[in-house]
Write a structure and sequence with these properties.
This protein is an all-alpha fold and 237 residues long. It has helices spanning 9-46, 62-78, 80-89, 93-106, 114-117, 123-130, 139-146, 154-162, 175-182, 184-190, 196-203, 211-218, 220-229.
Length: 237
């Protein structure tokens, strides 16, 4: 019969200490695992992720600016027959402002940007733009520059809008002035004709990919009426 192993007091102490160390290691491993499980679920409650570093927030979102520009363009073009003359004749900022105020009283706009509602506040910016060399008598350029006020300077507003050209169709009231600025010879010739056949003959004299010109060319029956709708009624033209 095998004799039982004799364990001395000292060896028993050694065994207990070793086992305790092993158990402690196991316990630490379990605690670490539990902490990992719990932390993965609740960490966002106690330790929220740091906010993302972002660039400088724009004073006005680009799409908001473009929407303003589009609405202002529509209103300007609807008033363009006489407003264009008033702005060309203006010799100072007060006269330019008076032209816009008169247009506002004649054909009010809907859902317009701050510039429309605070014309007097932006008189200086308006005059600076008209004298800057970027206007070119174009209502869409004017809308692009004024749409961002007061959050942006007229220069910044113009630059941003220029990167995103307005693709909407031209208002009927703006056709006459568009032809005056871009195709003055054809406009003078069209003033002398009365029939769609004559309109086709005259418009065929210019080879161009200009979309407005091509639109007139494709609609000779309506072209004269469209031009008539935009002819200024102010005297002295």
């Amino acid at each position: 019969m095998r004799k039982k192993r004799f364990i001395s007091a000292n060896s028993e102490d050694d065994f207990s200490l070793q086992r305790a160390k092993e158990m402690l290691i196991e316990l630490r491993e379990r605690v670490a695992w539990l902490e990992g499980e719990v932390f993965s679920i609740t960490s966002h409650q106690f330790f929220p992720a740091p906010p993302k570093r972002m660039g400088r927030r724009p004073k006005i979102e680009t799409q908001v600016l473009l929407n303003r520009r589009n609405r202002l363009t529509t209103w300007l073009e609807q008033n363009w027959p006489n407003l264009s003359i008033a702005l060309r004749r203006a010799r100072n900022s007060s006269q330019a402002l008076a032209g816009l105020i008169a247009a506002k009283e004649g054909v009010p706009g809907a859902l317009q940007p701050p510039f429309y509602h605070q014309l007097e506040r932006h008189e200086a910016a308006l005059w600076q733009f008209l004298r800057s060399g970027r206007y070119h008598g174009n209502p869409r350029n004017l809308a692009a520059a004024m749409a961002g006020l007061p959050e942006l300077s007229w220069k910044r507003s113009f630059d941003i809008c220029s990167k995103h050209p307005h693709k909407g169709g031209l208002a009927l009231q703006a056709y006459w002035d568009y032809m005056r600025r871009n195709f003055p010879d054809r406009l003078r010739e069209l003033a002398e004709v009365r029939t769609p056949e004559q309109v086709k003959m005259i418009l065929a004299r210019s080879r161009t990919n200009d979309p407005i010109y091509l639109h007139l060319k494709e609609h000779p029956d309506e072209a004269l009426e469209w031009l008539k709708a935009g002819k200024p009624s102010l005297l002295g033209l």
